[in-house]
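Reviewers of the previous submission asked for a worked example of the structure-prediction workflow described in the proposal, so we include one complete record here. The input consisted solely of the amino acid sequence. No template or homolog information was supplied to the procedure at any stage.
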Amino acid sequence: MQRRTDDRAVKGLDKLTSVRLAEVLTQKGVVPAEVITDALYAQDKNGEPFVQVLIGGGHITEWDLAKLVTENFQLPFLMAGNYQISEAARDRLPKELLFRHMLVPLDAIDNVVCVSMPVLTPFEVLMKIQKEHNCDVFPYVGLITENKKVLSDLFKDFPQWLEDDQKRREAGAAKRATQKDSKDKVGDWMSVFDAGDQAIKDRPSVRKPVTPPPTSSTALPPKKPG
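From that input alone, the workflow returned the following structure tokens.
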């Protein structure tokens, strides 16, 4: 890995977004449009990383997705396990942050922190790290499986954190599925009520015959003569 960062890459981080990657995937037709839409929704509403939803769902391999990110965002690719990570890099950012975003710290050079992304880390996340930890982040495109392995080697508590996080995600997914089922059942019951209401409205009305009022000639008995 080069010791001197590329200013153009650092300045171009604003293009590193899930929406932009979704556009690339749509243009190339490698993932169905409805899958991309669902993955973006899962990220926006449930906090599930866009790339992990695509890969976890078997819609694209992490290698193919990493290749697309490397080519279209003009960022270098690096296998984190092939780099000798310094202690300064390992301790430069909080491990909880690294765990949450699955970032592998590669090197720390002055104010620049080089990291391996799990394929793609959105621009807003990288900018927040820069602001909160007073550094410039230089990202390399990496692999999710590789980053998990390296983080497990660097931090002995990462495997337990990963297991707990997986359970949390599964519990969240189960809860959302239950809520969806409940809404569907309510919708089914409401459709039954609506159908019944409509049937009543459509039923022909039956009216009892009305006895006509008496005419003026028969309404009162004739009066007897004076």
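Residues 7-158 form a domain with the GMP Synthetase; Chain A, domain 3 fold (CATH 3.30.300.160). We consider this example representative of the routine output the project will generate in years two and three.
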